[in-house]
Amino acid sequence: MDRTAKADLVSTLNGVFTTNAVVVVAHYKGLTVADMQKLRSQMKQAGATVKVAKNRLASIALDGTDVASIKPLLKGPTLLAYSSDPVAAAKVAVDFAKTNDKLVILGGAMGTTALNPDGVKALATLPSLDELRGKLVGLIQAPATKIAQVVNAPAAKLARVFGAYAKKDEAA
Questions:
Q1: How far is CA 84 from the centre of its chain?
Q2: Which one, 55, 71, 123, 133, has least CB within 10 Å?
Q3: How far apart are CA 18 and CA 165, in angstroms?
Q4: Angular region, 95: left φ>0, alpha ψ -120 to 50, beta rest
Q5: Alpha-carbon gap, residue 120 to 169, rounded angstroms
Q6: pTM of this structure
Q7: Does the CA dihedral 111-116-121-125 come out positive or negative?
Q8: Within 20-128, where are the H helices?
Q9: Which residues in the chain belong to E strands, given as ranges?
Q10: CA distance 46 to 87
């Protein structure tokens, strides 16, 4: 890799570290190419990305970013998983690590907060941004629906009473 390619990679990684909400660092020693492709496709479906970069170049790119706390984790064969959704990368990495013991989560960072492996696992248990939005919309709609039902209930009861009297008069 020549100097210009290294400089481009460092600037790209710096942009990744400044724009994404969460970065997860893991060891991938022993993963086959098929396993890596499966991990990449699962990350892509969740809206996250996996990148394998030289540790030295990644540590240079970390300078001046919020996630600089992951620099000590960059030892050995590491991969970086990142996403703009604070939960997506952690969720996929933890789920993949459950089924494949060769992926070992070392930690990560969410903004300026450093995460140990347990922190990444705890982050993975949280609902995703889309799930939270769905729950919020459901909570907002529920009171409005109940108010409409309460407001319409007396009118419906009154209509049933009038209907009963009308049937009674027809029968008589």
A1: 8
A2: 133
A3: 72
A4: alpha
A5: 72
A6: 0.71
A7: negative
A8: 33-46, 55-62, 88-99, 117-125
A9: 22-27, 48-51, 78-83, 104-110, 113-115
A10: 10
